């Protein structure tokens, strides 16, 4: 009885202990040994504005990690997004990525105070040289989100709270979008006197397939709330809160990670190619792609598992 009471008291103290700042409780199933461990930092991923953790086997969690600045995207973030997703693209252990925002919201957009000098005081001796520098700057910023699209690993955006300006550029470059009920989306650039120039105007029409709605959002900068985002196709699911959303995002990532990485990554590459090309061109590209990919052992392993009525989780696919 005494041992039982001590155990109960210890359990209560553990449960009532405050959660460390910056960490959120995960509802994802874990082993008994892992339940009290914080997510481990992913090797070779050390950044100022991002936090990358190994959430589960084959799954990385990328967080916009400036909660004290409302996850505003500063110079470091533009640079580190390229570095981060370039590494992920080459990581043979990673099969899926979840990207989210630390703190109370996803992102408030660009950090105007940090980037004002780049935009308002560009360097150059004349109009031609200033323009050349600005074009290079815009191209670098565009690559910060295009690198997500170029990454062959599926990227799931998990959005809560505000997703403003550059945040919309970011999430439209992702493959799947989930959001919490408190999320809203805002193409904010017209309110600061410029046209969105790092992806929203190019990707959003293709994501939601409604040019009239895109025009309305881009011309007015009005907020699109979660239910409208779901109805328009910007997100595929809405959840009551951030915790449920993240749990679902990681469950989805885990499901994707059980499939053949050759099949999943080939699918992403061809979906993006088909979006930008005709059906005939895309079929030709697919035939050329699969003339080599059909020779993978992953097909044999997957078919064998199906015939033996085994779960694909039990199949050991080689790294890619």
Automatic annotation (TrEMBL):
Positions with biased composition (Polar residues): 23-35
This protein's record includes keyword Repeat: no
Keywords, alphabetical: Acetylation, Fatty acid metabolism, Isomerase, Lipid metabolism, Peroxisome
Stretch list, region Disordered: 23-47
GO molecular function terms noted in the UniProt entry: delta(3,5)-delta(2,4)-dienoyl-CoA isomerase activity
Catalysed reactions, semicolon-separated: (3E,5Z,8Z,11Z,14Z)-eicosapentaenoyl-CoA = (2E,4E,8Z,11Z,14Z)-eicosapentaenoyl-CoA; (3E,5Z)-octadienoyl-CoA = (2E,4E)-octadienoyl-CoA
Biased composition (Basic and acidic residues): 37-47
CC per GO annotation: mitochondrion; peroxisome
Stored Gene3D superfamilies: 2-enoyl-CoA Hydratase, Chain A, domain 1 (3.90.226.10), Lyase 2-enoyl-coa Hydratase, Chain A, domain 2 (1.10.12.10)
Listed GO biological process terms: fatty acid beta-oxidation
Pathway the protein contributes to: Lipid metabolism; fatty acid beta-oxidation
Compartments (UniProt record): Peroxisome
Subunit structure, interactors included: Homohexamer.
Family: Belongs to the enoyl-CoA hydratase/isomerase family.
Record function comment: Isomerization of 3-trans,5-cis-dienoyl-CoA to 2-trans,4-trans-dienoyl-CoA.
Protein known as: Delta(3,5)-Delta(2,4)-dienoyl-CoA isomerase, mitochondrial
UniProt organism field: Lynx canadensis
High-level lineage: Eukaryota, Metazoa, Chordata, Craniata, Vertebrata
